[in-house]
């Protein structure tokens, strides 16, 4: 049975209007699919989601404040350090397509539980087995985050359909909070735990274990609902889908440059590792404000193009300020950077929802945007490492920021239009 999801020029004015459309489409087009059961303890699921989301960035942002120490300890070159910051982001993209396959086979909740445990294992391996463990653990951690990151938005859409916008904001805020905590606390933790960078990085396996414990009650739910799946065709031929994907990847590239290199840039400008980590943590923590408000404000108008230009403009201004402005102005530009990046990322997630007619298309567009997008995003941190090694300094990075940022704005102007991706959905039976 086919379920067409044709392109439309119908404007998407409000997120709640889209949610009503989604619910109507599910009822009209899928009468034979059972309605998901009402959540008995939604607070327990919400707590579990927040704790899981908190663990999707510490493995990435905890390395940057200690990158110089780790490089000196293991004798890494600038190019190897760049590879270390690139590998986890590359794995986010490469392993994202694995998420729906695992979810159909084992159930979404069980997969999240199992991958949380592999995330903890990856963090431990990264901390305990020298240079080989550092890279192998980074790959395992990045792959784990890539799988979970694709699955959680689908859980939000399914179980909090009436509050999808708010819950997307809460999810994004939890991501930002986890990144900020790891960026600010890793260096002090390493000092407290015997001046050991390995202990400082390894500490972040504990929150992953805690999240797995709180997620355990969800792991036995709704397994039967995964017997029916939908194949969505046409995304790779759709121009709008590629614009959403490129915007996701390009704005993410700037985010992972910040996660991977901002402390090193600031140390090069004269800050201590602790000070640099605190500046990065402060920049990430202010993302909480725009992570929640930017999607809501962007859905008040006829489309999201103006909002995208504003948040990307703030992101570029903050990056150039951190790179070139006088040091006494550093905190101002770090805050501007955080406000811009918080809005840019939350808008990227919101576009996936707004550009899709139904949940099946949104799930597949999410997989494409994160799979291809994060693979593209990994080139940013790598380019920073290569340019830094070639030039021996940081001044040339402004060209990288400008090219990525301007390309993100161009892609965002296309993705922000009030259209739907043009695809076909076909019901299939999963094995």
UniProtKB/TrEMBL annotation:
Gene Ontology CC terms, in alphabetical order: membrane
Signal sequence region: none
GO molecular function: transmembrane transporter activity
Annotated keywords: Membrane, Transmembrane, Transmembrane helix
TM stretches of this protein: 38-56, 76-99, 111-129, 135-156, 168-190, 196-216, 240-262, 274-294, 306-326, 332-354, 361-384, 396-420
Claim: Membrane is one of the keywords in the record: yes
Listed InterPro entries: CynX-like (IPR004747), MFS (IPR011701), MFS_Cyanate_Porter (IPR052524), MFS_trans_sf (IPR036259)
Top-level taxonomic group: Bacteria
Alphabetical list of NCBIfam families matching this protein: CynX
Annotated PANTHER family: 2-NITROIMIDAZOLE TRANSPORTER (PTHR23523:SF2), PTHR23523
Protein name: MFS transporter
Organism: Pseudomonas endophytica
């Amino acid at each position: 049975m086919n379920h067409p999801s044709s392109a439309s020029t119908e404007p998407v004015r409000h997120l709640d209007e889209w949610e009503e459309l989604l619910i109507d489409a599910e009822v009209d087009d899928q009468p034979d699919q059972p309605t998901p059961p009402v959540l008995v303890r939604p607070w327990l699921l919400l707590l579990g989601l927040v704790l899981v989301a908190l663990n999707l960035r510490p493995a990435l942002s905890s390395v940057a404040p200690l990158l110089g120490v780790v490089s000196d300890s293991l004798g890494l070159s600038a190019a190897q350090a760049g590879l270390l910051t690139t590998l986890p982001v590359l794995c986010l993209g490469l392993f994202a397509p694995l998420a729906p396959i695992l979810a159909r086979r084992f159930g979404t909740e069980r997969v999240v539980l199992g991958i949380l445990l592999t995330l903890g294992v990856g963090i431990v391996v990264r901390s305990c087995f020298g240079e080989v463990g550092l890279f192998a653990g980074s790959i395992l951690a990045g792959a784990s985050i890539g799988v979970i990151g694709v699955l959680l938005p689908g859980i939000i859409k399914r179980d909090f359909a009436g509050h999808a916008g708010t819950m997307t904001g809460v999810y994004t805020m939890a991501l930002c909070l986890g990144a900020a905590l790891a960026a600010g606390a890793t260096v002090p933790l390493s000092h407290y735990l015997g001046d050991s960078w390995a202990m400082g990085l390894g500490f972040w396996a504990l929150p992953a274990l805690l999240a797995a414990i709180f997620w355990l009650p969800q792991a036995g739910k709704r397994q039967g609902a995964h017997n029916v799946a939908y194949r969505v065709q046409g995304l790779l031929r759709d121009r709008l889908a590629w614009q959403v994907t490129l915007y996701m990847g390009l704005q993410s590239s700037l985010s992972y440059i910040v996660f991977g290199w901002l402390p090193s840039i600031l140390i090069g400008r004269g800050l201590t590792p602790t000070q640099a980590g605190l500046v990065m943590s402060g920049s990430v923590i202010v993302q909480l404000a725009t992570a929640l408000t930017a999607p809501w404000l962007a859905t008040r108008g006829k489309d999201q193009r103006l909002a995208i230009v504003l948040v990307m403009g703030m992101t570029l201004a903050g990056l150039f300020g951190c790179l070139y402005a006088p040091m006494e102005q550093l905190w101002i530009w770090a805050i501007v950077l955080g406000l811009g990046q918080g809005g840019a990322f939350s808008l990227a997630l919101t576009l996936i929802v707004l550009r899709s007619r139904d949940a099946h298309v949104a799930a597949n567009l999410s997989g494409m945007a994160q799979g291809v997008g994060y693979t593209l995003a990994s080139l940013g941190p790598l380019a920073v490492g290569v340019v830094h090694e070639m030039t021996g300094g940081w001044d040339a990075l402004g060209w990288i920021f400008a090219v990525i940022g301007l390309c993100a704005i161009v892609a965002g102007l296309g993705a922000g239009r009030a259209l739907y991706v043009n695809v076909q959905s076909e019901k299939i039976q999963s094995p």
